[in-house]
């Protein structure tokens, strides 16, 4: 059973999300809140698997709440799914940098919301296509001409580096397996090793590191091929 906390300052929106998710056979809503302070409290009290988090909220916004939730001891299993709208694009990059596992537009369908919760609960990342484009443009704007790659990248094998590049390209484990002509179990092993060596929580952080370090550059070319 996936435990979910829903945090949004709009009561009707929050209640609608909670009712929809709570009606699923594999999801239980353990709490609701109206701002970032509530989100932190709910995370401490109920230890949800996923926090569905709005960004713009009074008293404490979703970014600061995400930073506090994921920065506390024992938060390794918590995932934050951020709800965003086109007018808050400037917050997307910052939310990912503090550990959010995915982004979903507020006008997403009911099925998309339920699927998104399940995706991030199992440790995958989820970026709405519209959000991904803006995120890549932000990487392009912020990226230095000579990015400094973390030393841990040197510990990756050639195959693990290849897997990191494919993760950054948005491929699932199954898609990576087909691309590399290996079993999905083998891919899961490679992904686990990449995460361990680089100290990553999930695929969202892997995407972040791949672009920031220059392993992948906007446009889809691996840095080593430049």
The proportion of strand residues reads 15-25%
Strand arrangement in the largest pleated sheet: 2-1-3-4-5-6
How much is the average pLDDT? 84
Query: How many structural domains are formed by the residues?
Result: 2
- Helix-strand pattern, N to C? EHEHEHEHEHEHHHHHEE
Outline = globular
Instruction: Give a count of the beta strands, DSSP E runs of length 2 or more.
Output: 8
- Characterize the main sheet: 6 strands, parallel
Task: Determine the N-to-C terminus distance.
Answer: 46 Å
Low-confidence stretches: none
Determine the CATH superfamily of the largest domain: Response regulator
The CATH architecture of the largest domain can be named as 3-Layer(aba) Sandwich
Given the helix and strand composition, which structural class is it?
Answer: alpha/beta
CATH topology of the largest domain: Rossmann fold
How would the blueprint of this fold be written?
Layout: E1 2-7, H1 11-22, E2 27-33, H2 36-46, E3 50-54, H3 62-71, E4 79-84, H4 92-97, E5 102-105, H5 110-121, E6 126-127, H6 129-142, H7 158-168, H8 173-180, H9 184-198, H10 203-213, E7 216-217, E8 221-222
Parallel strand pairs: 1-2, 1-3, 3-4, 4-5, 5-6
Antiparallel strand pairs: 7-8
What attributes does this structure have?
single chain; 226 residues; alpha/beta; Rossmann fold; Arc Repressor Mutant, subunit A; 6-stranded parallel beta sheet; 10 helices; 8 strands; 49% helix; globular
Summarize the structure.
With 226 residues, the chain is of the alpha/beta class. Helix content is 49%, strand content 15%.
């Amino acid at each position: 059973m996936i435990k979910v906390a829903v945090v949004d300052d709009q009561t009707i929106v929050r209640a609608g999300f909670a009712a929809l998710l709570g009606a699923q056979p594999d999801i239980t809503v353990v709490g609701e809140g109206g701002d970032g302070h509530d989100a932190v409290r709910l995370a401490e009290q109920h230890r949800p698997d996923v926090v569905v988090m709005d960004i713009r909220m009074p008293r404490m916004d979703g970014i600061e709440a995400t930073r506090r939730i994921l920065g506390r001891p024992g938060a390794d299993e918590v995932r934050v799914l951020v709800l965003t709208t086109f007018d808050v694009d400037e917050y997307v990059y910052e939310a990912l940098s503090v550990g959010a596992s995915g982004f979903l537009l507020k006008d997403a369908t009911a099925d998309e919301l339920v699927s998104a919760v399940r995706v991030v609960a199992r440790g995958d990342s989820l970026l709405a296509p519209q959000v991904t484009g803006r995120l890549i443009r932000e990487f392009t704007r912020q990226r230095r001409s000579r990015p400094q790659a973390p030393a841990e990248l040197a510990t990756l094998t050639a195959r693990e580096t290849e897997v990191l590049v494919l993760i950054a390209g948005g491929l699932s484990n199954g898609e990576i397996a087909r691309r590399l002509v290996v079993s999905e179990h083998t891919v899961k092993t490679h992904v686990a090793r990449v995460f361990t060596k680089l100290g990553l929580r999930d695929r969202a952080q892997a995407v972040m590191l791949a672009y920031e370090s220059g392993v992948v550059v906007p446009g889809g070319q691996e840095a080593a091929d430049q």
